[in-house]
Design a protein that fits this description.
Blueprint (H helix, E strand, L loop, with lengths): L3 H26 L4 H13 L3 H13 L9 H22 L1
Helix pairs in contact: 2-3, 3-4
Length: 94
């Protein structure tokens, strides 16, 4: 018998796809709103989709947007890239 998580997997993937569409629409409608980019970065990092978190950081940097943190999106991007490198090292060591 399939676990509930396995049964719900297609709906979870669909939901994440819908969420990505929402963030894309929000950044299109409000291209200079740093909070949208920040929330997108935080959401995708929590979902372990570092590729999408990095995407929104880079978009914010390209638009010259600040997220009202000490290091801004540049610092956030560096931390995300460092996290990706750490995961790659872990996978290659296995």
């Amino acid at each position: 018998m399939l676990s509930r998580a396995t049964q719900n997997r297609p709906s979870i993937l669909k939901m994440k796809s819908e969420i990505e569409k929402i963030f894309n629409a929000a950044t299109s409608l409000f291209p200079l709103d740093g909070d949208i980019y920040k929330q997108a970065c935080l959401f995708w990092r929590r979902q372990r989709r570092l590729d999408l978190a990095i995407k929104y950081c880079k978009l914010a940097i390209e638009c010259g947007i600040n997220d009202d943190t000490k290091t801004g999106f540049v610092g956030r991007l560096k931390r995300l890239q460092h996290e990706v490198e750490g995961k790659q090292k872990t996978l290659s060591a296995q």
